[in-house]
Design a protein that fits this description.
With 148 residues, this protein is mainly alpha-helical. The longest helix has 24 residues. The two termini are 19 Å apart.
Length: 148
């Protein structure tokens, strides 16, 4: 599937490349929709999204959840704190760690961004039938849980 008869790799048929390229295209096209109006990056949006869902998380937990480089997460968190969208407090259970939460401004922005993200998802999957969408999610879960 990913090699030609001469033993070369067909990048356009190589699954890791295809998944990465598609994810980047979808993320960037969504970023165009919210970056001008809200002034946030893809990384900042992902952190807002995970904190909107989980409420309180450490930077390490965020890094693991969104599968982003810890340096990129750290920089994005710093920008979100500077924009008064996220606050960092000492973890009540572990004084060596910090918990990140959305500020009131951060929660308001998150609530404004969710409909934009959901509409974008609908546009991306609009050409798929309901059954194809269900199959896609099952296949992605299966791949995500595969041993690497």
């Amino acid at each position: 599937m990913t090699t030609a008869n001469d033993g070369t790799l067909s990048l356009q048929q190589f699954l890791p490349y295809r998944l990465s390229a598609l994810a980047n295209r979808i993320s960037q096209s969504l970023a165009v929709k919210y970056s001008k109006q809200y002034g946030i990056s893809v990384q900042e949006w992902r952190i807002l999204a995970v904190l909107g869902e989980e409420t309180k998380l450490s930077a390490v937990a965020i890094t693991n959840r969104i599968a982003m480089d810890k340096v990129a997460v750290s920089r994005a968190v710093k920008r979100l704190i500077e924009k008064d969208l996220v606050v960092k407090d000492l973890d009540s259970k572990d004084q060596r760690s910090h918990e990140l939460t959305l500020t009131t401004n951060g929660l308001e922005m998150y609530q404004q961004l969710v409909p934009i993200a959901l509409e974008h998802e609908e546009q991306v999957t609009d050409t798929l039938t309901t059954k194809e969408k269900e199959s896609l999610l099952k296949l992605l879960s299966k791949l995500d849980n595969a041993p690497l």
